[in-house]
Write a structure and sequence with these properties.
Chain B: It comes from Thermanaerothrix daxensis. The complex is a heterotrimer of chains A (232), B (62) and C (229). Chain B is mainly alpha-helical. Chain B has one helix and no strands. Chain B has one domain. The relative contact order of chain B is 0.06. Classes of the chains: A mainly alpha (232), B mainly alpha (62), C mainly alpha (229).
Chain lengths: 232, 62, 229
């Protein structure tokens, strides 16, 4: 019970190596973009982090649906684990997006659909954690968490869609024009390869972190049960 | 030919944020894990004492 | 109500709705609080934004919806907190009715309250800012927007009131999720106030309708698992 499973150790090593390879490719292999320069290289891990964030939240919604049908606490643990990791990576996504935007669009923040949606998503899942904190009974906490994970994930595409047509009908001109056009660049094969490796590395990292977080959740559950048993 | 803009500091800042956030999360996982292990050890010890009242310290008995 | 077997869904829904409306008719606590609150929000906006009597249409749409939403949160919280505190929720659960009917009844009642507030706010707002807001289009948007808001709001409020931090929890849970409804409602209202051609307003109306359907049906699907002890 206490020792880390062999498969997890192997996965950790593979994820670590993959991340190192991806970072190496970003730093040394990927070409310098002609206009934006070095900051464009943030792009690889920025996109990969966004992908992991979406993966986490989507997985949590699926885990929520399965929890509501099966009522096994492991699905709830999976849901929290996925959301927590999703929050970390969405935060990375938003902050790196801002860092990229500063030199390229000349502003830390634009109300562009993707950036805005990612931030609202972050708020939704912070609310999720606050909801869970306010409920003591583990079974009820799991149920409510599942419901909110489903509703929250559903609202994400709706938010994105709303903001998107909000912008197309009334385009907001910020600084030097349409932000998506200013930051755009065409991908060379080396860039595509680097992006692909980053995506794979981050996906592996996601699975490894999820597993660790799941084990933490299981340990937490055991401790909670011990505590309840002692109190009674 | 136009030189690419010098945005190296932003690039470094970006990757500092990425690895920094990941590191903080990893540390938080490790810290929480250790706290829970301590709690678990303490609780199992208390439980064992409860199951075996003779072993209990005098001060705790009524 | 006779407890002989299951009451039909609509009977149960109407019973819950009727109970809420009758209780409100006796006390008038909720509506008066919502109305006074909404008025205060409008006044605060006036000073905070230094509004003139002639208001841009886009701005009034925004202020109108922010006011409605804040007042609506007040109402949602109250309407379910009362049930929880008086133990009515347990009574409702013991009754041999479909859980979804309880949800439908509560949501309808909240909808009615929001519409009453809107019905008073719209002409008042028009008087304060010297504009006519009571247009058929705006009324339609208010109907649709309030429905979507209340559909998610009732669901989330029934979770929030069962949490320890319930007074502060509802807006935090509700606002980020309900943003698409608010965006569509504000844009559609603004469109009608600016007398834009229908082709420019229709996408927002369609969106609002789609959101209402999605949120309402999901709420019906998951509400069962919120009320079960």
């Amino acid at each position: 019970m206490s020792t880390t499973p062999r498969a997890l150790v192997v996965l950790d090593v593979i994820a670590g190596l993959a991340l190192a390879v991806a970072a190496g490719m970003v730093f040394f292999y990927a070409p310098l973009e002609r206009v934006m320069g070095a900051v464009q290289k943030v792009f690889y891990f920025h996109v990969a982090a966004g992908w992991v964030g979406m993966l986490g939240f989507g997985l949590a919604a699926v885990a929520g649906i399965i929890y509501l049908m099966r009522r096994r606490s492991r699905w709830d643990l999976l849901g929290v684990a996925a959301i927590e990791i999703g929050l970390v990576f969405t935060l990375i996504n938003v902050v790196t997006g801002m860092i990229w935007a500063r030199p390229v669009w000349n502003t830390w923040w634009t109300w562009d659909p993707r950036l805005t949606t990612a931030t609202i998503m972050e708020l939704v899942y912070i609310a999720y954690l606050m909801l869970r904190q306010g409920i003591e009974d583990p079974e009820r906490r799991a149920r409510f968490g599942a419901v909110y994970a489903i509703v929250g994930f559903l609202s994400v595409p709706l938010t994105f869609f709303s903001i998107r047509i909000f912008r197309t009908i009334h385009p907001v001109v910020l600084g030097s024009g349409d932000p998506t056009a200013t930051g755009a660049f065409s991908m060379t094969p080396r860039m595509t390869q680097t992006l692909m490796v980053s995506l794979v590395a981050f996906s592996l990292l996601f699975v490894a972190l999820l597993w660790h977080r799941l084990r933490l959740g299981e340990l937490g559950e055991r401790v909670e049960q011990l505590r309840l048993k002692l109190q009674s | 030919m136009e030189q690419p803009a010098n945005t190296f500091t932003y690039f470094i800042a970006g990757y500092a944020v990425i690895f920094g956030a990941m590191l903080i999360y990893l540390v938080s996982l490790v810290v929480r894990w250790h706290h829970l292990r301590q709690d678990e050890a303490l609780l199992t010890q208390l439980e064992a004492e409860k199951a075996n009242p003779q072993a209990r310290d005098q001060a705790f008995s009524p | 109500m006779k407890a002989t077997g299951a009451v039909s869904f609509w009977q149960a829904t109407l019973a819950v709705l009727w109970k809420d409306l009758a209780a409100e008719w006796r006390s008038r606590e909720l509506l008066s609080a919502m109305l006074v609150f909404a008025l205060l929000v409008i006044f605060i906006f006036n000073f905070a934004l230094e509004l003139q009597t002639q208001l841009r249409a886009g701005l009034s749409a925004g202020i109108l919806w922010v006011t409605l939403i804040f007042a609506g949160t007040l109402g949602l919280n109250r309407s379910l907190a009362v049930e929880k505190d008086r133990g009515c929720l347990d009574g409702l659960l013991l009754a041999p009715v479909d859980r979804a009917a309880i949800y439908a009844g509560k949501a309808l009642a909240n909808w009615v309250f929001m519409l009453i507030v809107a019905a008073i706010m719209l002409p008042l707002f028009g008087i304060f800012y010297n504009a006519s807001l009571v247009l058929p289009g705006v009324v339609l948007v208010v109907l649709l927007g309030a429905e979507g808001y209340v559909a998610v709001g009732t669901l989330l409020a029934s979770m929030a009131v069962q949490a320890r931090t319930r007074d502060i929890l509802l807006p935090i849970l509700l606002f980020p999720v309900v943003i698409p409804v608010v965006v569509a409602a504000v844009k559609a209202t603004g469109g009608y106030l600016q007398a834009l051609p229908l082709e420019e307003i229709r996408p927002w109306l369609n969106l609002l309708g789609v959101y209402d359907v999605i949120f309402t049906s999901v709420a019906f699907m998951v509400f069962d698992s919120i009320l079960e002890e």
